[in-house]
Design goal:
It contains 40 helices and 29 strands. It is of the alpha/beta class. α27 (about 715-725) crosses α29 (about 745-775) and α28 crosses α29 (about 745-775).
Length: about 1100
């Protein structure tokens, strides 16, 4: 017995200790339940109102005091408001603490109410109560088919439509589900096995926490589950007077979605909750806001949302000027030809490397010849790697013993002394691919090849703009050209450089699309669209696009419509979004393997909930084969045996191409089967639901079909729908499976047909279930170990639900990615020496444990990487919190005059010292600046011989305030609205630019490690310097626009004013009020001073010739 087993025998494991701590809460629920069960239906609902009032009264005093304090904010000077906000935060914390205490007190009664409501629905066709106004509102909604009104009575039926399916309520909570409900209420993660009823368990804490009236969010991973679960569980809540809605049913920014957030319980997908947060922080009017305070959320499949997708940013994008002016389709054929040339060359180089390295072994006794052949062989191999690093033949060869190590040694030689010898290594290549740097660059040879193809040797060459600008300057100084000619020529140079830069960028992105992104691995093409596939789950990441033109490049490669270029308007990661909730909990079938990450990042404890019935599934040891061919042959044989005896098989793969390879082998073996991967995601629930049928064989990526139980024998409703699809349209089937009242005879006939089909299948399913159980239940076959144990456990957990029989086994080959990492090549060498054939299996629990140990190491490494990414993400998140908080204060405030006054002072105090110092006084420059910014032509102080910067600041500040106060008094309420709209728009524009700048900084900051600097520390320091610059830029532009506002006709209404667009503000330096609406002023500022140099846009190429954008180069000075 090892040390861990001794400790477990003495103190018990974590799960046992956790259950002991939760047991007293469950006992209290059991004590309260008999009394609740004895209540009449009306008394049960009255009990809900009673505890709801008790809970809400617990925070009533604090809420009233907060409302009083908020009413005083506008009248309080800015420098004194912080104290009010501090008091509000303190009171809010007190209110939340009081709510939590009250919820803990009423929890036994609340859980009992939910439990007995479920029992009453299950045992009675109809549950009759005295109708309330809320009941009547529900009955008036045609989508609420679970309730009807008869006089003064409301009748709740126990069948209704959920997710488009006819559903009869047959569930009641069992004891272990009370454990799960308690864990979720405590703000922890409940790990519950597949089939243990996570959705029903969630009704307990959801109902309890909704009593506060502060809102509960139930978060799912896709919109089908969000809509289904809101309709499935909704009647349980609504029977007891709680409102329920689903945001995914309504359009963004609509009144219906705003109403959904006001419901006591709101269902939705993780994506939509996050996007609504971003949209709210882009709103220009308080009426556009939809979300309220983030109170309590329960996240379904919490490991998928908070681990797998945690650092994937939600991005709201918008069009950029000339976003449809692209070159991807124009140059795609050219790049494809270039790629094919290098692909052929890479194959030849790999063949050469194989031959020379093999020949070297034959001359092992001749040291000179051996060394020469090895050097030549590894150089050819390295060239093949730099040509096409994702070549599958190359990857397989690199997995052989000693091959990758030899290539890396060659790489070290050519990278020494700052890549001095690298040109020799890459000389034969047309372009060089670097996976680590995510780059693909042309070589001289590639440039020459392209020049020959297009008959233009300058088409893909960036001009030496620094030299050209210097020559132009010299011409100007020597009076060879006049001022206007100089300006025109310089504009032409910059325009040409911009076109060339865009052309080179297009070429690089197309090369990356061909060399680093493979169809059916990184993405799929569905309905004429390129959709990104999550590498962990195999699911399609709807709405996600690669940035910086890469997505357009992939679209051009696949010959689908190339979308217009866009820019990031707002972004946030799930990790940062969900950490905003006051209380967060989650549920999943597999979380224990990620316990440390949940604890460190989210402060969430993971509690393992016991199953209702003992698990009958047999988890068999892994079987290891020498190579992938032997492994897949064994998998096919295993499937064939199970198929012949009728045992259903679910085969899990790690990628789409592996799924399709298995499918072809099964076709060859003439075994009927279904394939489920990202290509067929629309059929996901239907295919998975039938995976438990007699003789069913289903191939799926490991995470496909999460949230759908596999029922032995099959699902009668899905089978009935499948039959009806042969005769009816989707809409007709939807009508046939609904419960709303209708007189349409055709619909009634279809409903009768559907019910009869379901009844017929129900009879057959019971017999089929018995046959499946006799055959051994559902069999799970894993075709490869994933680097995460959690993913493997999720696959295993599809079998053995609710005490059903089943078995699972993983087949492994030494070619698998995980085995390559941990010595697969060494074991292969041993196999070859002892003469093990491809089809000879090795089965050993020791090997299984070794593989799991390897997985732990990879998980640890991945966690370290994610923690490092988190450090970068936290920097941006802190800035986001600050800017969004200030933005919300602007949005909610009625009068920003004082804030604008502070901005004027800040700008004045920044501008003047730039021109007036102890050493010099640039009076003309200052005059230009103050006229451009404030519209003030001159200052009296500047006419004096002696003055200090403080004197200038005093007079300029006084004049600017007087001018602005006069405008404010003259324009009245119109000016107040103008202040708000201008400030919001400028904040949004500068924040968008800042997001791009921070991305650029993050991409380049890693190189600081070479200078012995911590990249994270540098990112944090420079990031906040950039943030300070952005804040000043906001102040500068807001003051500039507002100081130049003029008027034609007075009066502007809030709705009209908010119509101002970002584009209008970008295109003008002055605005005016015209017939009560904000408008750009014709001609801009009355007297404009033309700069001698043409203006360089912040996103234009920098004229210094660095190749960077201006904002990230000289524009930062």
């Amino acid at each position: 017995m090892n040390f861990n087993k001794i400790l477990k025998s003495l103190f018990g494991d974590k799960s046992t200790r956790d259950m002991k701590l939760i047991q007293p809460y469950v006992d209290k629920v059991k004590e309260a339940y008999p009394e609740i069960k004895a209540l009449s239906n009306d008394e049960l609902r009255a009990k809900t109102k009673e505890i709801q009032t008790y809970v809400q009264d617990a925070g009533k005093a604090q809420r009233e005091k907060i409302a009083e304090l908020r009413a005083t904010i506008e009248e309080t000077p800015i420098d004194e408001r912080e104290e009010i906000f501090t008091q509000i935060d303190k009171l809010d914390k007190e209110a939340l603490d009081n709510y939590e205490k009250a919820l803990n007190e009423v929890m036994p009664v609340a859980f009992s109410i939910v439990k007995d409501t479920a029992r009453r629905f299950a045992e009675n066709e109809e549950t009759v109560v005295t109708a309330t106004e809320f009941d009547r509102e529900l009955a008036a909604d045609p989508t609420k088919d679970f309730i009807t009104i008869d006089g003064d009575k409301a009748i709740y039926h126990n069948h209704w439509t959920a997710g488009g399916n006819d559903l009869k309520w047959e569930m009641a909570h069992y004891d272990v589900q009370l454990f799960g409900g308690t864990v979720l209420h405590q703000g922890k993660i409940a790990e519950m096995a597949t089939g243990e009823g996570k959705t029903l368990v969630a009704t307990l804490p959801v109902f309890l926490n909704a009593l506060t009236g502060n809102g509960v969010h139930v978060v799912t991973v896709n919109d089908y589950l969000a809509k289904r679960d809101s309709e499935w569980m909704g009647p349980l809540y609504m029977f007891n007077g709680l409102s329920v809605d689903c945001i995914d049913k309504h359009q963004p920014n609509s009144p219906a979605r705003r109403k959904a957030y006001q419901a006591d319980i709101t269902f939705g997908t993780n994506n939509e909750f996050g996007f609504d947060y971003l949209r709210d922080n882009m709103a220009v009017s308080p009426a556009d806001l939809v979300q309220r305070q983030h109170n309590y959320a329960i996240v379904d499949e919490v490991d998928s949302v908070l681990i797998d997708d945690a650092r994937t940013p939600l991005i709201i994008s918008g069009p950029v000027p000339k976003g449809d002016d692209q070159m991807f389709e124009e140059f795609q054929p050219l790049v494809q030809s270039l790629y094919e040339v290098q692909r052929k060359q890479a194959t030849e180089l790999l063949s050469e490397a194989r031959h020379k390295l093999s020949e070297a072994q034959q001359h092992a006794n001749d040291k000179s010849t051996f060394q020469k052949l090895q050097e030549e062989g590894f150089l050819a191999l390295y060239r093949s790697y730099k040509a096409l690093p994702k070549n599958k033949a190359l990857i397989k060869y690199l997995s052989e013993e000693g091959v990758k190590a030899g290539m890396l040694k060659t790489e070290e030689y050519y990278m020494a002394n700052n890549n001095r010898e690298m040109p020799k290594a890459i000389e034969p290549l047309y372009f060089v691919t670097d996976e680590k740097m995510n780059s693909c660059d042309l070589t001289d040879k590639g440039t020459a090849w392209l020049a020959n193809q297009v008959k233009d040797d300058q088409l893909f060459v960036l001009p030496d703009i620094t030299t050209e600008l210097s020559a132009l300057e010299k011409e100007k100084e020597e009076k060879a050209i006049d001022e206007q000619t100089y300006i025109d020529k310089k504009d032409a140079l910059m325009a040409h450089y911009g076109v060339q830069s865009e052309r080179v960028h297009t070429l690089q992105q197309l090369l990356k699309a061909y060399t680093m992104f493979n169809k059916d691995d990184e993405y799929v093409v569905l309905n004429g669209e390129v959709k990104i596939v999550d590498e962990q789950t195999g699911r399609i990441m709807e709405g996600r696009r690669w940035s910086d033109g890469l997505h357009q490049a992939v679209e051009a490669k696949e010959h689908v419509k190339v979308a217009d270029e866009s820019k990031t308007l707002a972004n946030i990661t799930f990790q940062n979004y969900f950490r905003m909730y006051e209380k967060l909990s989650g549920m999943t079938g597999t979380a224990m393997t990620e316990e440390q990450e949940f604890e460190e990042i989210y402060k969430l404890d993971v509690i393992e909930i016991p199953t209702n019935k003992p698990i009958q599934r047999k988890d068999l040891p892994d079987i290891i084969y020498k190579n992938e061919t032997g492994k897949f042959n064994a998998v096919i044989e295993d499937i064939k045996k199970s198929y012949e005896k009728g045992q259903p098989v679910l085969v899990g793969t790690v990628s789409i191409d592996k799924s399709e390879r298995l499918s072809k082998l099964l076709d060859k073996a003439k075994i009927p089967h279904q394939v489920l991967n990202a290509k067929y995601h629309e059929k996901e629930a239907e295919i998975i639901a039938q995976a438990g049928k007699y003789k069913a064989v289903t191939i799926a990526t490991n995470m496909a079909g999460r949230g759908t139980d596999i029922i032995l024998g099959g699902n009668s409703e899905y089978l009935a729908k499948t039959d009806m699809r042969k005769k009816y349209t989707f809409e007709e089937i939807e009508e046939a499976t609904a419960f709303n009242e209708t007189d349409d005879e055709k619909i009634l006939a279809r409903r009768e047909e559907f019910r009869n089909l379901v009844k017929n299948y129900d009879k057959g399913i019971e017999d089929e279930r018995a046959k499946v159980i006799e055959a051994g239940g559902l069999k799970i076959i894993g075709t490869e170990r994933h680097e995460s144990r959690r993913i493997d456990n999720q696959l295993r957990g599809r079998a053995g639900r609710q005490g059903d029989p089943g078995e699972s086994r993983f087949y492994i080959s030494l070619d698998d990615d995980l085995m390559k990492i941990f010595g697969g090549s060494i074991i292969t060498k041993v196999y070859n020496k002892i003469g093990v054939s491809d089809d000879m299996p090795i089965e050993s629990r020791i090997l299984t444990r070794t593989v799991e140990s390897s997985q732990k190491k990879v998980e640890g490494r991945n966690f370290s990487i994610r923690k490092n990414v988190l450090q970068y993400d936290d920097v941006m998140n802190k800035q986001r919190v600050i800017i969004y908080k200030q933005r919300r204060e602007v949005l909610d405030g009625d009068n920003l005059t004082e804030e604008i006054g502070n901005m004027i002072d800040s700008v004045v105090n920044t501008i003047v010292p730039q021109y007036i110092t102890n050493d010099s006084k640039d009076i003309e420059g200052l005059k230009k600046e103050i006229f451009t910014e404030f519209g003030i032509e001159s200052l009296d102080i500047l006419k004096q011989e002696k003055f200090e910067a403080e004197d200038v600041i005093k007079e300029l500040s006084e004049k600017a305030h007087n001018i602005y106060n006069a405008k404010s008094e003259k324009f009245g309420e119109s000016m107040r609205e103008l202040e708000r709209v201008v400030t919001l728009k400028i904040v949004d524009e500068k924040w968008m630019e800042h997001i791009d700048n921070m991305d650029e900084l993050k991409n380049g900051v890693g190189l600081r490690a070479y200078a012995q600097k911590d990249p994270v520390v540098v990112y944090r320091m420079e990031g906040f310097d950039m943030f300070d610059e952005m804040v000043y830029d906001i102040q500068y532009d807001v003051v500039k626009l507002l100081m130049h506002v003029t008027e034609r006709d007075e009066g502007a209404q809030r709705q009209q004013t908010s119509e101002i667009t970002s584009a209008k503000l970008q295109e003008t330096s002055a605005i005016e009020l015209v017939d009560g609406k904000i408008s750009p002023k014709e001609g801009g500022i009355d007297k404009t001073i033309r700069n001698e140099e043409p203006k360089v846009g912040r996103n234009d190429p920098c004229p210094c010739g660095s190749g960077k954008k201006y904002k990230n180069c000289c524009g930062r000075q």
